[in-house]
UniProtKB/TrEMBL annotation:
This is DNA helicase Pif1-like 2B domain-containing protein. Coiled coil: none annotated. CDD domains: SF1_C_RecD (cd18809). Residues 108-154 form the DNA helicase Pif1-like 2B domain. It holds the Pfam family Pif1_2B_dom. It comes from Araneus ventricosus. It comes from the Eukaryota. InterPro entries: P-loop_NTPase, Pif1-like_2B_dom.
Length: 295
């Protein structure tokens, strides 16, 4: 928890959220509900994007519950930044040895897919855009999966970035690299050659774990899965003043409050029966875990 020492009320409320003491719904303080219900305008309306700097952008984030919204929000913020835009298309190929798969899943079809953990086929960037790494590229330089960077220069086939918070101001060149999706979310094997990064103006709550922002806007048009998930998102803020919530009501519903779902950088235990007491809860947790994998 990163609440300031002077924010005792925020600290106490945050712990109650994490412990699930608010029953099925959590009462959100009125100070967290802005009049502006557009998350992009709410978080970035005070910035002059004609002269925006990386320092102004790196301390802000829009958090969503699931994946279906954060890509749209990322593009909306990018559109506000002035300057030249670089567009980078991937090269996709089907690795299946089945002739029928080769005929059914052609390159144009693969271009429309974005498997879990993979960058999209078409990527847009501008100078000062906030991005995150999707792979472990250079651990000796702290370039891990999830590392935050700022785009400093756009070239024809590569982008140049600087690590956020780095005192050395060292820049890195990221080219397109071959990426093969893991998991079983697609019924065939394929490869995508693309930049291993994504825009990070907006992200899911799970992906924000372990970070700290000066200003955070939550888009809670969908209910969170557990009190713990909401706690993860709220704990990256400093105080009530740094949190704004876009929600239909001033209360947030919570799914599956009876148990903790393992997500983010934690490993899901293999023996679920040792954690969950009844078959009913085990069945519900397995279903919820599938939802989390899609996030």
């Amino acid at each position: 928890m990163r609440a300031l020492g002077s924010e005792n009320e925020f600290s106490k409320w945050l712990l109650e959220v994490g412990d699930g003491l608010s029953a099925d719904t959590i009462k959100l303080p009125s100070v967290c509900h802005p009049k502006e219900q557009d998350p992009v305008k709410q978080l970035y309306n005070d910035l002059n994007f004609k002269a925006v700097t990386a320092e102004q952008l790196k301390g802000r984030a829009i958090l969503t519950v699931t994946n279906d919204l954060f890509i749209e929000l990322n593009n909306a913020v990018l559109n506000l930044i002035t300057g030249r835009e670089g567009v980078y298309d991937s090269i996709d190929c089907n690795l299946s040895e089945n002739p029928q798969d080769q005929l059914s899943y052609i390159e144009e079809f693969l271009n429309n897919l974005t498997p879990t953990g993979m960058p999209p086929h078409k990527m847009r960037f501008k100078k000062c855009a906030v991005i995150k790494l999707l792979r472990y590229l250079m651990p000796s330089k702290d370039l891990y999966n999830g590392t935050s960077l700022i785009v400093t220069k756009l070239q024809r086939k590569v982008i140049e970035e600087e690590m956020i918070g780095s005192s050395s101001k060292e820049t890195f060149l990221f080219p397109r690299i071959p990426l093969i999706p893991s998991g079983n979310n697609i019924p065939f094997s394929c490869k995508r050659k693309q930049l291993s990064v994504r825009l990070a103006f907006s992200m899911t709550i799970n992906k924000s774990q372990g970070q700290t922002f000066d200003e955070v806007c939550f888009v809670l048009t969908k209910s969170v899965f557990t009190h713990g998930q909401l706690y993860v998102g709220l704990s990256i803020a400093w105080s009530f003043d740094s949190v704004s919530v876009i929600s239909p009501t001033k209360e947030e519903s919570v799914f599956y409050k009876e148990y903790e779902i393992y997500y983010g950088f934690m490993d899901c235990p293999t023996d679920l029966h040792a954690v969950f007491k009844t078959e009913k809860v085990v069945a519900e947790s397995l279903e919820a875990a599938k939802w989390q994998e899609q996030c």
